[in-house]
Amino acid sequence: MESHVGYDTFLQMDSHGFYKLEIPEKLNMARQTVDYWADHGRAQDVAIYYKDEEITYGELKDLTDRFGAGFHKMGVSKGDCYVIRTPNQPEYEVAFLGGQKIGAIPIPTNIMLREGELVHIINNSESVAVITTSQYIQAIENIRPKCKTLKYVIVIGETEGGQISFNDLIKEDGTALPYVETHKDDPAYFLYTSGTTGAPKGVVHAHRFIIGAGDPIGKFAMGVQRGDICSGPTALTWMYALGHNFLFSRRWGISTAIYYDERFNKERTFEFIERYKLTHFIGTPTIYKMLMSIKDAEKKYDTSTLKQCLSSGEPLLAETAREWKRRFGLDILDSMGQTEAHEFCTTQVNLNIKVGSMGKPLPGIEVAIVDDNGERLPPNELGHLVLRRDHPGLLREYHKSPELMEEVTFPNNWYDTKDLAYMDEDGYFWYGSRSDDIMTCHGYRISPSDVETALQEHEKVFEAGVAGVKDPEMGDKVKAWVVLHEGYEGSEELAKELQDFVKKTIAPYKFPREIEFIKELPKNSAGKILRRELRRWEKEKLEGK
User: Fold this and answer.
1) CATH number of the domain that residue 448 is part of
2) Whose CB has fewer CB within 10 Å in the chain, the N or C terminal residue?
3) Is residue 9 part of a domain?
4) pLDDT, tens digit (0-9, with 9 covering 90-100), for 438-487
């Protein structure tokens, strides 16, 4: 059997002062996280807080052993994929890690996915099992005849004919768990993510991810230590939360509190922080803005246990960061990441903070701004944001889609994030936009995030989305969709006021030629504005005329 290696031994500094990740050939994500701590002095430490329940690392090891043994006895084996469709709850972690122990490959899916999306994911991955709850079982039963590889449906809660009880499954003797050897490059889990066109694509991560992404993030972005408690009000099926609120916390042997409300609630989020005495809060810019919309929240709620507030998913506005610091006394550490790589560029605990920047590349991860030929660009020049292709936290492949890997392969051995950014003279990175979001108006290249940021500095604007609308004279007409704070109404006068405000805030040629006031922006499950939806809205509006 493989030996476990200490949790702080893989990220090493070489003789030149550069960090390098050394990853063992034989590696299993579940055994490297849960089993390591259960066997190395933290068996009695709490791994999971959930409602009134506490699960220690020792208990989590036992539960995952039992699940793995039962799963294997049922007929699931190394290389088999299985779908997890549950809200945030301990059984999600048990199923994820327990399956990994026998070399099976979990695929977490958002509970909001529709039946057609689930059919595609199950069939594309050739999944043999689904783990879900009695609340969400009906959709699985509806699509079961369309999924030829699906053999086992495991239900948390009450079961009916043809379904397997999760509780019965974990009654299996954990000592019967077979040892299945896995390699660092073996598939460890999939996440399906929507592209700009077509069906969801399967992003395959290998077991090396837990070290390749987890070690730099845990050490430099989170700065965690024994006794810390990490969580946030986001679904564990989203890569950002999957890492921080689950896998990386297990990697570093700390506690997590599982946020059990299926929808974000700002008052209950503060109560959640108080109840579990969180030290690390994982949020998004929108979440921080919503929390600050509670008048005198800093006086009503006790947030004194918080040591770190992290943000990702969308650009963090300077105004949001400054106001949070003023009211709660803590900086928000912003970051840039993807489903394909998790975070790779962050505001780090040991560096000065530049408000509005996404920080610097994490030690051990090579990141650059390059031109179309893959050559590094000088400071302050907008270019392609790329990672070195041998980064061990990077995806293994897009499942059954080699053409997608070709699309993100850039000259000089770079992986193209499909984002545009620039680096300043001090090595801090600043976000531009998605490469297909850049607008060209009268010959000027304009980043939508620049315009969104400027609009959101206005006191009446809660948030804004910006996209280019095709125009025969301008090329792309800059249009903004604006959500106002409560108590304000949109009008032609306010639109003109916002246009003038943008002209005074950033280069005048970037101002939005048209502003539409709406109640809510289209976003994905990670909270990112879907600019392609804004463009679709406009196209449908024009076609309807």
Assistant:
1) 3.30.300.30
2) C
3) no
4) 777 765 667 787 788 889 889 999 999 998 888 766 677 899 999 999 89
